[in-house]
Structure to design on (180 residues):
């Protein structure tokens, strides 16, 4: 009987599918088995800075050059790459009409939800959606890009609506950024 129990314990301890550890044995050969704890991956918080430019509509159907700047934060929520963040920044739109050139600045502050998935070592895909608020506008954005180490290159589609939904600015921006 002792040989059978010893043989079973040997098979159990060398089995590849069993990750248990024997932590306590007394004289009656009673064994307590506990699964080892899986290590938790650390949650990261990154601060980001992005600048870019592109083309936006001016609300009357014309296309205007634009530039943007954003400061943000990204907090990893789980092991699958999901993150929650926030951005503060603005977009400068160069509106030109027949009589004058006007630069318009649209300030934005709001949350972002995204996912970051590894492609290769030090290369990650980043896709996100966000909504921003400013005193006169609501901003919706959809973006994607790649992070190489701490450097970002991506594209962002933005739409700005005034609070009365009369003025609509839509466009595409190319961004470069860094995280620290």
């Amino acid at each position: 009987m002792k040989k059978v129990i010893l043989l079973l314990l040997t098979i159990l301890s060398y089995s590849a599918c069993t990750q248990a550890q024997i932590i306590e044995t007394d004289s009656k050969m009673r064994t307590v088995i506990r699964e080892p704890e899986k290590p938790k991956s650390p949650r990261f918080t990154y601060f980001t800075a992005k600048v870019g430019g592109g083309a936006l509509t001016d609300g009357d159907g014309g296309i205007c050059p634009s530039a943007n700047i954003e400061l943000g934060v990204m907090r990893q929520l789980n092991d699958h790459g999901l993150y929650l963040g926030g951005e503060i920044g603005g977009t400068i739109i160069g509106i030109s009409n027949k009589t004058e050139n006007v630069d318009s600045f649209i300030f934005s502050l709001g949350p972002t939800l995204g996912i970051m998935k590894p492609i290769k070592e030090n290369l990650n895909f980043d896709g996100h959606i966000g909504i921003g608020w400013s005193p006169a506008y609501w901003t919706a954005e959809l973006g994607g890009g790649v992070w190489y180490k701490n450097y970002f290159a991506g594209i962002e589609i933005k739409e700005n609506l005034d609070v009365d939904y009369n003025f609509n600015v839509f466009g595409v921006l190319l961004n470069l950024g860094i995280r620290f």
Notes: The two ends are 63 Å apart (CA to CA). The first helix runs from residue 2 to 14. The chain is about 5% helix and 65% strand.
